[in-house]
């Protein structure tokens, strides 16, 4: 539940992503809990397994349980052994751990899916298009670049697609990732609390240059971003192989709060080939 | 007692080409699978070598992609399942008390198709480049437009996979029929040994999952060879363009692939689970704790495995409710595994645990699987999955589960080696191998969790992660070296090993250990029975007595093994009555002269190999490829015909447990199971059509993509033709029952004529559509025109192919009926009828979908 509380407090800082709980924090928290519990469960279960294996090992002497248990006989019809109750207890414990863990993450999933309240945060909308082997970013003014520029502490919403094959767009440090599928749009959001340079990578095999399909991500202080952005008004600044694409205007629909794959992208795809 | 029936001794090479015996074929599977393990393993070592440093470029960009892709394909398809099926072939009949599989020749055919599909995969390396789009083969990277060069190698890989799928489907039909019709007396389904049970559930999953894969592959092959455009984008001059021609393309592949892909992970793992459970029982001297719940868990997993596939697609933009459902099913499916793990752990309690090599491997597999399972739960949490997707976390996770499965199977190899060879391996060396293996495994895969930020399938990664990747590479070579020990051990022990005796393992219980090592050709010294609750071998007299009591008849049914299920199965069903009437009356089924040799399965598969190799290059128009396709086709067809003409006798068991199919004769059961998978095949085609149409826009589709000349009439006429022909098949049955030869022939000829009418009508319709000149379609409406034409021609074409096959069988039966067959015994016609009615019913779905809506 804490995520809900946090996302509401975000309302106190309108127009800013600084108070918004960033996806990277959500991930870090869940991952940490899973790592701790997962390691604990792993160690316990493996130790328990080894304990059984060693404790009951045949030391070559007489069978210490000869009068307690009946050993399987050649040619018998297969049946179950005794001790089923313990299996159930252990199973129940493990089931409780797994189910409660996943249930706990579910509230955080809702937060990641919906993102911070769009009415409260002035999210920046950027279109991302993957191509073999690079990325193109289109800003609200139709300016396009091959480096992603975003302001610090502001919610950034991405609409991601591909021009050719299936790619996957991810910025690992900022914990944002989504598939880039030709003919479809997927969305994702993030906010960067620190300025600096990051890397965006492709996470789906897309051909010979896949390993090198990396774009730079520059997180700028808000004022610096503003001046960079104002300097781009009306122009299309990126390389010629992407110039034809400046007409994409899918970002105009402001409310992308509920991420939906556009099942009928015929309506939304602005076409290079059109 | 022992009849050789033309089968040469094991020392003779020709035996291995001729044999249809399940034990021989099991051995062939094992050896072939190990060969592909080495093949895939060497590729892995190559790219691990490149990964030892962050920036090395050993294989080149495309070389690297080819190596990872084919490594995945080889390991998942050509190594792990076939390896498990080596054991299944050898052991399932022994464990359930059968003398062979239900259709021995079909079993040989499965094997040869498998082998040749692997060879085709190998040949693809020499056709320029082989497939380089990852084992998941995402679209549209898997289409020729995105494959550098001519792309013939990639086409060969797709065709090789189709051939492999054919082998799997035949195998599934065969195993299911065997297990439901040939269990020893007294052995209920739930009573069969746990390894055989795991195989039973595996083949059920295979039957349906591989049908979906087959649909995906057929569509892909058609995109490659025929030029349909399911997975392609429109070609704008020389480049591919992002317009809205077929917006469902990429996701269609993902759905089809993962609908297969998730069940596949259990298909891979279940046999391993079965081996683990067997080894645990034997080497702890305890029965499996909670066996009933263990079985129920496996059944639950098998069913549920078909409703979790979208967890591989969490980032594709599916909506929240669907994500939630798939998250729930994913977690749900992990719970039965918890139960199974604990069941294995508690089986050790109060045991006499002996750390022999098979047990070490089983225990090691359990531990690896626990780690793999825990890291899978991480992936089940969607927020984490978003970040893990496409990274080494996934790579590490699935190797911990899948290769855990392989670990258990290596345990199985040591466990059954004495049974198969009659010799004992060197225990000390086996234990050492396990140590090296386990060390290598963890050194290879565990660092991948730590270096999980590395994107999958890349050869450059952050320098900070180098130490982990170097470790992994070293681990890989250690793991590889451990196999040298294994091969050495198993090879040398063939000569130097001590005689193993019937049963070298204390507390082993299942029937394979009750016979000599290796078991004789007919498996058992008598007819096995569990009627008293314990394994006994009945002598002929007792059997005769019991069958008499049961049926009043002197002996059981005998039916011949009838060709392939795919060609309608029923082709050569020799009337059982006639067959048995010719046997001396005192003979019981156990003594009937079962056949064990046939050369046709090899020839059919060889023909298939040449055909497919030819098909991979026909789009170049090269004479070499074209003639290979033609010659291969002739060989395949001719040898299929030869196979149906060959007298081959696979007797049904005199007494057997057959619940729940006691009244379904084995040919019929085989036909049913085959049709069940065919339903999924057509289901996947129809589903694909619906999917791409919805993605395009249901009504716009009709508007934009379909010419006015595409009218309802030809379809309507064809509907009537087919329905009438179905009716005639029923008449043929009735006539055969009444022993009216003339009626039978007339009805069959009528069926044939109506079917031919159907095809001619369809041909005319297609011809017309190909050559229309309208404003919207100036160049006709052919396979490549647009996505609507692609779906239309391919789906109805697949149906047309079914009709054609049906007609070949029908013509064959008409000739046989003319010569007096089937009179008084209409079963063969009934089996053909099942197929034919099915083909009609499919048309009743296709007609509205492609002509009216
Ligand atoms: C505790 C049970 C398990 C859970 C919760 C689980 C969950 C998952 C999830 C969610 C993925 C998708 C990861 C992604 O691509 O983002 C995945 C991948 C995979 N899992 Fe599991 N899994 C489990 C057990 C298994 C088992 C038993 C096997 C096989 C024996 C297996 C084999 C695989 C494979 C092969 C992949 C990767 C497919 C690919 O992308 O190439 N998993 N698992
Ligand atoms: Cu890529
Ligand atoms: Cu899965």
Folded structure, characterized:
The complex is a heterodimer of chains A (about 270) and B (about 850). With about 270 residues, chain A is an alpha+beta fold. Chain A has 5 helices and 10 strands. Chain A folds into 2 domains: about 1-115, no CATH class; about 125-250, Sandwich (Immunoglobulin-like), CATH 2.60.40.420. Chain A has helices at about 1-10, 25-55, 85-115, 220-230, 240-245, and strands spanning about 125-130, 135-140, 145, 150, 155-160, 165-170, 175-180, 185-190, 195-200, 215-220. With about 850 residues, chain B is mainly alpha-helical. Among the domains of chain B are: about 20-275 and about 505-600 and about 650-695, Cytochrome C Oxidase, Chain A, CATH 1.20.210; about 700-853, Cytochrome c oxidase, subunit III, four-helix bundle (Four Helix Bundle (Hemerythrin (Met), subunit A), Up-down Bundle), CATH 1.20.120. Helix content of chain B is about 65%, strand content about 0%. Chain B has a two-stranded antiparallel ribbon with strand order 1-2. A two-stranded antiparallel sheet of chain B has the order 3-4. In chain B, strand 1 (about 235) and strand 2 (about 240) form a beta hairpin. In chain B, helix 7 (about 250-285) packs antiparallel against helix 10 (about 355-380), helix 7 packs across helix 12 (about 390-420) and helix 22 (about 740-770) packs antiparallel against helix 23 (about 785-820). The interface between A and B is large, with 101 and 120 residues. The structure holds protoporphyrin IX containing FE and copper (II) ion (CU) (2 copies). One copper (II) ion (CU) binds near residues 262 and 265 of chain B. Protoporphyrin IX containing FE binds near residues 265, 380, 389 and 397 of chain B. Chain B: It is a multi-pass membrane protein. Chain B: GO terms for molecular function: cytochrome-c oxidase activity; heme binding. Chain B: One of its GO terms (biological process) is aerobic respiration. Chain B: Keywords: Electron transport, Heme, Iron, Membrane, Metal-binding, Respiratory chain, Transmembrane, Transmembrane helix, Transport.
